[in-house]
Amino acid sequence: MGCKEALGLFPDYLDGSLDADTCRRFEEHLEGCAFCLKLFESYRKAISLFRQAHLREIPVDLSERLRGFLATHLKF
Amino acid sequence: MAFEELVQRYQSKVYRLVMGVLQDHQDAEEVLQETFLRVFEKLDSFRGDSTFSSWLYRVTLNSAFMKLREKKGSTMVSLEDALAYIEDSELSSSLNWPSGPDDELITEEVMKIIGEAMEKMPEDFRVVLILRDIEGFSNEETGEILDVSVPAVKSRLHRARLFLRKRLDEFYRQHMQE
């Protein structure tokens, strides 16, 4: 497996949706290619950091204004 | 479920999505309000063919994209520019990123880099990133919400993640040299 092919498989590998043979070839490539391994690790870390940065709740003041707005317009 | 309870349950999800699309607090608040008004009006038309959250996201995105169209041309990065940047980024790094738990790496600077990357990303990419990586929808569910094919979802997701990775990589490259 070449680097370009391995790069294209990052999402499916993380989803666990690769077939057994492709999964094995992907992992073998990463074991033997320090460059792709670093790229994959940073790809996975970028997703994790993005999740942590964006998994935020609605601000309390905005939630209160939304409740007020809907109470006025829908009378609940 | 009472409507008030429904708002309580889904308000953060709708907020994350509209902020993700619009990248503007004031616009997001307007669309948030408008979305829940529409949901209230259209609730009877929800037939249960899809999950409620998929339906809710479609209503939300309709409102968000309508707002976006009103403002189109202001600060948008073209798809072509973003794609050129992403293509350029794919195989450019051999840098070791900082090790350690990810929650310790979320600094204000990193939050800022991620926010800026989101602003520069085309909205079609941002939406996929949020639906897949934040809200946890599958490729198939995301395709259904956005009315695009699964290969299109997968392609946008991969490119959006590479775009984000590239921005963070540039940040760490600069940061770790200091």
Notable characteristics:
heterodimer; A: 76 residues; mainly alpha; B: 178 residues; Rna Polymerase Sigma Factor, Chain: A; Arc Repressor Mutant, subunit A; 75% helix
Quick overview of this protein structure:
The complex is a heterodimer of chains A (76) and B (178). Chain A has 76 residues and is an all-alpha fold. Helix content of chain A is 80%, strand content 0%.
Residues in helices of chain B, as a percent range: over 70%
Count of individual helical segments of chain B: 9
Average pLDDT for all residues of chain B: 83
How many strand units of chain B?
0
What is the oligomeric state here?
A: heterodimer
**Which regions of chain B have little confidence, pLDDT < 50, spanning 5+ residues?**
none
Specify the biggest β-sheet of chain B: none
Spatial gap, N to C terminus of chain A: 61 Å
CATH class of the largest domain in chain B equals Mainly Alpha
Main pleated sheet of chain A: none
Task: Describe, in plain words, how this protein is organized in 3D.
The complex is a heterodimer of chains A (76) and B (178). Chain A has one domain (3-74). The N and C termini of chain A lie far apart (61 Å). Chain A is elongated. Chain A has helices spanning 3-8, 10-15, 20-32, 34-54, 60-74. Chain A is mostly helical and 76 residues long. Chain B has 178 residues and is mainly α. Chain B folds into 2 domains: 3-71, Rna Polymerase Sigma Factor, Chain: A (Orthogonal Bundle), CATH 1.10.1740; 79-177, Winged helix-like DNA-binding domain superfamily/Winged helix DNA-binding domain (Arc Repressor Mutant, subunit A, Orthogonal Bundle). Chain B contains 9 helices and no strands. Chain B is elongated and about 60 Å long. Chain B starts with a helix and ends with a helix. Classes of the chains: A mainly alpha (76), B mainly alpha (178). Chains A and B meet through helix 1, helix 2, helix 4 and helix 5 of A and helix 1, helix 2, helix 5, helix 6 and helix 7 of B.
